[in-house]
Every structure is written in C-alpha cells, then in structure tokens.
Design brief:
single chain, 394 residues, mainly alpha
Length: 394
Amino acid sequence: MTTRRTALLVAGVVLLSLNLRPAAVSVGPVLGEVRDAFGMSGATAGLLTSLPVLAFAVFGAVAPTAARLVGVHRVTLLALLAVGAGLLGRALTHSEALFLLLSLLAVAGMAMANVLLPSLIKLHFPTRIGAMTAAYTTALAVGLTASLALTVPVAEAFGGWRTGLGLWAVVAFLAALPWLGLVAHDRRPDDAPAATVVRYADVARTPLGLAMALFFGLQSLQAYAVFGWFAQLWRDSGWSPTAAGLLVALIAAVSIPLSLWLPRLLASRERPAGVLLAVIACYPVGYLGLILAPYSLAPLWALLVGTAACTFPLILTLVGLRARTAEGTAALSAFTQSAGYLLAAVGPFAIGVVHDATGGWRWPVALLLVLSLPLAPLAAYVARPHAIEDQLRA
C-alpha cells in the first residue's frame, strides 16, 4: 500500500467516524425548539429519538449484502452522502413528515457506515486492528461530544436550531471527499470467492455471533440508559441543570483518551479477557456509589461509569479480531450491532418504568447494576481466541 493511499484511508476512516453520532444525537439538545417549530407531539418526538435504533436494526443488517454487491467503498461513500443529504434536508424543511423521513435517511447512512467500518479496518489494516480501532472510536467519541456540546451554541449564534443541525451536514459532506478517491479500490461482486462469503444469517446461528450480539446489546443498553436518564438523576439529587449536564458530558468525555489506549492494549494481549473485565468492573462499582452517595461523590461515579462505557470501543475491536476475513468481519459487525441495538432500546424504557413505579433512582440504578453483571462471563467467552469462520465450518 502506497503512503498516499494509506494517508487517504486513514483520513477517510477518521472523518467518517466523526460523523457516526451527530445524525443521531445532535437533535437532542434542540429537541424543544424542533417540537415547537413543527407542533410535534410527544409520540412523534419519541419516534424521532427511536429512529437510530430502528436504523441499526434494519439498515445495519443489510450493509454487508450491499457492500458485497456494490462494493464496500462505494457503499461507504453513499452512506456518507445520505447522512449529509438527510441532515441538510431536515434543517431546511418545514414539513414534519419530511423532517422525520430525512432524519431516517441520515441515520440509515450512519448505521450502514457504522457496521462497515470494522470490515474496512480488517481489509486495509489487518495487522493494526487495535491501533486503527483506537483511532476511529476516539474520533467517534469526539464527534459525539462535539455534537452534544456545539449544536446549541451554533444555533444561538447563527439564527436558530436549523443552523445548529445544518452544521453537521457540512461536516458529513467534507468527510465524503476522501472516499471519492477510494471507490476505485472496490472489487466486482464476482471477484470474491464464494467460499469466503459469510452472511448475516450464518453469524446468527453461531455461539460466538450470539455472544457478541448479547455483549454489545447489554453494554449499549447501559449507555442508552445513562445518557437518557442520568442528567435527571443528578438534578433530582440536588445538582443544578447545568452541573447535571456537565456530569453526563464527563461520562462521554472520559472515553476520548481511553479510546486511544484501550483498543490497542486489548489487541496486543494474548489473553485480553483481563482488560475487558477490568473495564466492566467499573459499572457495578460506579452504580453502587450512585445508590449510596449520588450527590457528594457524583464526579467520581461519573468517571467510573464513563470508564465502564469504554466497553464500546473494546467490543468493536473484538469484531475485527473474531473474524478471519473482511467479509466475515462485515457480517459479524452487522449481526452484533443490529441485534445488539434492538436489545439496547429496552434500557431507557425499563429505567423510566422502574423510576415511575418507585418514585426514585435507587431501584433503577440497582437494575442497571444487575444488568451489568452478565457482561463478565460474556467477556470471558468472546475474549477467547476463536473466529466466526471456524464455528461455521465446525
């Protein structure tokens, strides 16, 4: 691989990663203004916030097939263009129905690109999976934090929520530029030997595929619940709205430096289970602290929960390590994420139900603690040195 092509690939991966969360989360900080502009009901707002989960379940599942038929680089470029078009269109439209459809277009592109990234890493950087996963998950965390932190200031400075949301369309279109130079590297569909093709349904019938999806789903469930409810938890504990928001931002910000280090550490270990278990252990410790002292030591518990949330870049690293081919990686990534996100969608709903039933936060946090415990045995299994192709041949 030439130096120029390597630089183009690295730039493409990093810029792509920056755009894998703004389509989903940038609307949250200005949701009140969006609802006012369209007269949006609570049910419609709930549908809007559920679109990312639906997109991962549907469009994420078909991403490997699309990549096999059209080419992984072409699909990635089209996914980024869909993100940009959806974000720009929804910032301009005055129709509630079009706003929802264009939001779906944006998160559909996001979901497909998100699923294909591990296979792109496997294809182009098979000996540097840890380092490249660290690079793209760090960029993803930066994109997440930036979209949460900058949407409102941009909206306030430049004329309203439409500008705040439209900013991320510009970022998406800029990220597409390197991929214009990468589409020529796609193979024709018949260039891939039939024996190497691993399909979504194949992964679904393997113990490793099921374990990876369950692990991904349970760790994502924690993140959905934390980002959905913990600002309110800390407000109810006595923190101001601004401080409560900063505590949640601290949880997200912790992943930026750790995402640079942990995937490389995991990939370099012959027995990576210890890394996974050490990170996962921060969940029950942080939750127990929240139950006992939700106010006085809140920053410490935020740091611990943020550290535990770094199971996300670790499971993405394992997606690249638990398949032998780029095609297998794409199929494993699709099943792991699409099935996992369906499970994760239960998290915020369950926490809300328990909170309403008990009138407090002790039992909802206790539920999250209990749901974090199965992550340990799952981590021990998925960390074993086996590959999805081996189980398909068995």
